[in-house]
Amino acid sequence: MKVTEVKTFAVDCFRTNWMFVKVYTDDGIDGVGEATLEYKEKALTGAVEHIRDYLVGEDPRDIERHVHAIYRDAYWRGGAVLMSALSAVEMALWDILGKSLGVPVYRMLGGKIRDRVRLYVNGWFAGAKTPEEFGEKAKSAVRRGVSALKWDPFGKAYLELSNADLTRALNCIQAVRDAVGPDVDLLIEGHGRFDVPTGIRIARELEPFRPYWFEEPTPPDNLEALRAVREKSPVPIAAGERLYTLRDFRELFEMRAADFIQPDVSHAGGILELLKIAAVAETYYIPFAPHNPSGPVANAATLQLAACVPNFRILEIMYSDVVWRKEVTNEQLTCENGELLIPEKPGLGVELNEDACLAHPYTPHTLRHYTGALTDIRPAETEFYF
To answer: Which of 73, 99, 199, 217 is deepest in the core (most CB within 10 A)?
Structure first.
């Protein structure tokens, strides 16, 4: 079996563009991966083209050899663009291998530990602006069986947070807690926006709400800052979505800078690299909760890890998405009592519809984390998909 072609598909999904990668072989078996990076799509396409030059003519089943060679021969190692391109191709190779053997990817990684995984939802707040509206949206999600909700209540704040902005954020959190009661878990997102004293201040204010975690309180490029917040935080700290290799996570582990780790299968090297990261985290007794707010292929790959990683704790997923999410792949998710069942199809279990992808081409979008426009997905443009 030899690789004959590698293609990228940029698909508008309103808040960003999904970036899918498809690897074709002379056996008629193809594989799909996802590198949704949020806003560096053109650079990512170029990075995949460079990988294509290496991969065409190679046996796609020699996954570890290819990943090592591609990473080794990238003189400027690491970084979001290279690692996302490599991650997507790696996913696609696992998809090919699983299909060629007729088994799900998790079967090749040691088999199942569990057949379902608890989820927490992102994007459940679409359209909400006031605390009361957040409360109503939260109640609606819980009625659908959701037991954990994540969101960023901090508006436009960057590095520091005024008393007024902090009060608004706490009022929003209080409204959600009052709406859903004490048994639903709340996960508070910081998007890496605060300096150390502000992160500590927020963490202390969050304690009465008993959050599941406070995510990325400080920017991702200084793990000592993250550790400084964690050391004084009365609530658990989660981080890692913007770390790109096992080597990056080694430093986080040694510093004991986070209580939960969140590598993203689309950015941190792919399926096998996340398996290695999870294994090291297990030696530190740190739960593994991958970042996963992207598209259907990344979700499928993360579910394969959920099946076989002992310290996998909880799965992120978008609560609703653009209506054409169901068109671009044959994704079929089964949710029961706030848990997703692990798919049993060969490979990753999803196929890409190229025509549907081309029907929703690349559309530029701007980063919204620092504008406060984090709730701008209008309900009319979305639908529930699980």
So the answer is: 217
Q: For residue 150, what are the β-bridge partners?
A: 187
Nearest of 87, 142, 156, 122 to residue 16 by alpha carbon = 122
C-alpha–C-alpha distance, residues 166 and 294, integer Å = 29
Domain that holds residue 334: 107-384
pTM across the whole model: 0.95
Same domain, 86 and 212: no
Asked if 114 and 11 sit in the same domain, the reply is no
Q: Does residue 204 share a domain with residue 80?
A: no
Please report, in tens digits, the pLDDT of each residue of the chain (386 residues total). 999 999 999 999 988 999 999 999 999 999 999 999 888 999 999 999 999 999 999 999 999 999 999 999 888 887 899 999 999 999 999 999 999 999 999 999 999 999 999 999 999 998 899 999 999 999 999 999 999 999 999 998 999 999 999 999 999 999 999 999 999 999 999 999 999 999 999 999 999 999 999 999 999 999 999 999 999 999 999 999 999 999 999 999 999 999 999 999 999 999 999 999 999 999 999 999 999 999 999 999 999 999 999 999 999 999 989 999 999 999 999 999 999 999 999 999 999 999 999 999 999 987 666 666 654 555 445 676 66
One domain, residues 97 and 146: no
